[in-house]
């Protein structure tokens, strides 16, 4: 007998799949894309705490660097943002809980675009780490002071390499998720991830720049980063940078949504335990 939560996500997956098919009759790809983004947004809004807002737009850091356009930005509701029009915003990176790319069909070339978007996002400067659940506020305060020192030296032209000692569960970059309704097999996607890694410039790494989660709703699997934020490491047998969860039957395919649910629930808890702060003075020129 399925657990209650497994049965719940089985129903939700069926509803999302059926609803997404309605948009297949549209000829314009923007209509299809917007409709499926709206479905994903409604699913997430109904399942994670209302301490967050959802919108589309770009993410900016204090150095005026920015991400590519993100389909869904999950943002701390108490933090300032820069509205453009309707649900389009510029988002301050330190208040972003996660960015989600929604794909109707995730094939290899589309994944390559997502890999580039993930790398660009994760290269943005984030001063507010997302604190791991097994860390302490005191330890974070010390890390924040050290990070501020590095930032001050960097602004003065002094380049230093600072090796943080914080636990790996602390996230120094913004989580990036790819949510696909359909797409290639897990083996094809894993090969594409490896190809992107091998062709990238020196300094690229899965840990620092790769997507945190890739979901394929139709095939019933997700590829996730092995970093404690979804499944604890003691539940994982290998040391590979990415692991795969795959349904072993048609009835269990709904549990693919549980992966996204668990990741965002853990991130929500981290934001609740230590709400992010946006230092707006970092985004303006100092008074003369």
Task: Give a nutshell description of this structure.
The chain has 288 residues and is of the alpha/beta class. 38% of the residues lie in helices and 20% in strands. A hairpin with a 2-residue loop joins strand 3 (82-85) and strand 4.
Counted by DSSP, the helix tally is 7
Major β-sheet strand ordering: 3-4-1-2-5-6-7-8-9
- What is the makeup of the main sheet? 9 strands, mixed
- Residues in β-strands, percent: 15-25%
Class by alpha and beta content: alpha/beta
* Radius of gyration over all CA atoms, rounded: 19 Å
General form: globular
Spell the H/E element sequence.
HHEEEEEHHEHHEEEH
- Tally the beta strands: 9
What is the overall pLDDT average?
Answer: 85
Helix content: 25-40%
> In angstroms, what separates the terminal alpha carbons?
69 Å
Q: Low-confidence parts lasting 5 or more residues at pLDDT below 50?
A: 164-168
Outline the structure in words.
Helix content is 38%, strand content 20%. The chain contains seven helices and nine strands, in the order H-H-E-E-E-E-E-H-H-E-H-H-E-E-E-H. The chain has helices at residues 4-22, 29-47, 108-122, 137-155, 186-199, 206-209, 256-273; strands spanning 52-60, 70-76, 82-85, 88-92, 96-106, 176-183, 213-216, 221-225, 242-246. Strands 3-4-1-2-5-6-7-8-9 form a nine-stranded mixed β-sheet, with helices on both faces. Strand 3 and strand 4 form a beta hairpin. Helix 1 runs antiparallel to helix 2. The protein is globular and about 60 Å long. The model is unreliable at 164-168 (pLDDT under 50).
